[in-house]
Amino acid sequence: MVRRSILDKIFQEMMNIRYRLDDIEKSFSQWNPQPVDVADTELLQLPDHLRRTYLTVASRGECNATVVSNLTGRCRAVESNYLNQLSRMGWLNRRRISKAIHFRPVSDEVARKPVIQVKT
Which of 15, 58, 80, 105 has the most beta carbons within 10 angstroms of its beta carbon? Predict the structure, then answer.
């Protein structure tokens, strides 16, 4: 039989965790990503299909392939391919959160890497 005082301590600790989570959720709900300043001439270097994907990610700040596919109306596998292309080209940063890969635009402090061209 478990004592009442132990259950009260567990309940109090759970309530403290809930309050902390509420504070974290509140701080994230007020977070607005700063828009990335990219010149129109740079965006015109991208093909239309990649530009549409890049603008979707830039407008959201950070998202994964599922979110991008829901916003663009294209298949998730296609968007995943486009996001990985943009990442290899240096337009997006990747990071893993649990099992999902999240993409976000490269900040102004980090210069974009030039596209590697293979000589034939």
Answer: 105
The three-state secondary structure class of 96 is: strand
The residues pairing with 92 across neighbouring beta strands, listed in sequence order, are: 105
2-56 per-position pLDDT tens digit: 678 888 999 999 999 999 988 888 776 666 656 566 777 778 888 999 999 999 9
Tell me 104's DSSP state.
E
> Considering the entire predicted model, what is its pTM?
0.61
How would you class 52 by CB atoms within 10 Å of its CB: exposed for 0-12, middle for 13-18, buried for 19 or more?
middle
For residues 47 and 61, the answer to whether their CB atoms sit within 8 Å is no
Q: Give CA–CA dist 54/91, Å, rounded.
A: 8
Q: What stretch of H or E contains 87?
A: helix 76-89
Distances (CA, A) of 88 to 19, 24, 32: 41, 33, 26
